[in-house]
Amino acid sequence: MILGRVIGTITSTINHPFYEAKKLLIVEKTDAGGEPLADYLIAVDVVDAGVGERVLVLDEGNGGRQIFAAPDAPIRSVVVGIIDGVDEGRGESGEP
Amino acid sequence: MILGRVIGTITSTINHPFYEAKKLLIVEKTDAGGEPLADYLIAVDVVDAGVGERVLVLDEGNGGRQIFAAPDAPIRSVVVGIIDGVDEGRGESGEP
Amino acid sequence: MILGRVIGTITSTINHPFYEAKKLLIVEKTDAGGEPLADYLIAVDVVDAGVGERVLVLDEGNGGRQIFAAPDAPIRSVVVGIIDGVDEGRGESGEP
Amino acid sequence: MILGRVIGTITSTINHPFYEAKKLLIVEKTDAGGEPLADYLIAVDVVDAGVGERVLVLDEGNGGRQIFAAPDAPIRSVVVGIIDGVDEGRGESGEP
Amino acid sequence: MILGRVIGTITSTINHPFYEAKKLLIVEKTDAGGEPLADYLIAVDVVDAGVGERVLVLDEGNGGRQIFAAPDAPIRSVVVGIIDGVDEGRGESGEP
Known about the structure:
Distance between the termini of chain A: 19 Å
Number of domains of chain A: 1
Largest sheet of chain A: 5 strands, mixed, barrel
Number of helices of chain A: 1
CATH superfamily of chain A: EutN/Ccml
Oligomer: homopentamer
Strand order of the largest sheet of chain A: 1-2-3-5-4
Structural class of chain A: mainly beta
CATH architecture of chain A: Beta Barrel
């Protein structure tokens, strides 16, 4: 999994029933400390994450399908959690 | 998934029934704002995308096979949607 | 899938029945225009491609196994087609 | 698999039974000699690794699910072992 | 698949029956001519490769499991062959 921050949403019509009422998030990848890396991915939201929030992204299709219990979902990346805290061995720093 | 822009098509004979009458697109990867990145991929078209259009590409074989409901399709990347809008948290910017 | 050019062959004994009489190609990755990128992969040949030819490579194991209709093939990348033409939106340029 | 060093832990609520009581580690990738590379990943712990320990990470979902014997686990990367020694052909150097 | 050179071995205890008596190799990636690239991977040995030998690595879990005929093996990369020769279109150059 990787860490990232939601920076926007995508509007696109995907002709597959799985995508009805799903939100597609633009997630900027970050390092462990939250600093942006020059990369992003588009992920399906499952935790109702908003722009600016730090999130955990599962970037593997078979695992993503398990999150939705949808073995036929045409997906790769899923925002599976909002990050409540990162402990880099120097104490707890929650950054909502 | 990733964002990209269609920059051309590929003509090649692939000896598998799945590829009869399928269009192979050259998709330049872009950042969230639509700026080209120095990378591309070849994807099967499912939305009749044309050169210049911004698209959403699913880059995972098992997911791609679900889009076509073809469990034996020898594919990896599929253009699954034309982008209608990108909202980077500063309002809606549709860029057809 | 990606585009590449065959630059050589590999001789190696792989102890699996799938590899009997299979040709292993060294494929240099190229951009859409055919310019070499500083990367390569080793792919199983299915179209009898020769050194110098531009090819289309499927870089996903499950898809590759479908090309050979061999669900137990220990492969990842397959040269699935010789490129007959690339149309970058400025007309057709066949580059054999 | 890759080599890395545990540099912290992540606190995040993931709505899937697999993640109850699982520890999520931040693993900094290293080269074979243990020098840090400018990359990391988030992996599920299975060996009770602590911050600072050098570890072996399996970065493939289907393999990771086998480690947990959990075919429905929504995971990609797993810390599968603590490194007891690295022999780079110049003798054994254990670096716990 | 990729080409590499064995540069060492890893000692680590992995709690899964598959890893009993398996050798874990550190493989430095190389280009087609055998020049080292600044990258490596950890692969399970199946050909009894020694330090310094040029090898062929299959970097895909499902394919790797086929090599061992072990559908439940938690692996990703396997050293599947020792390279007997590389023909870069300028004649045969065996480099054991």
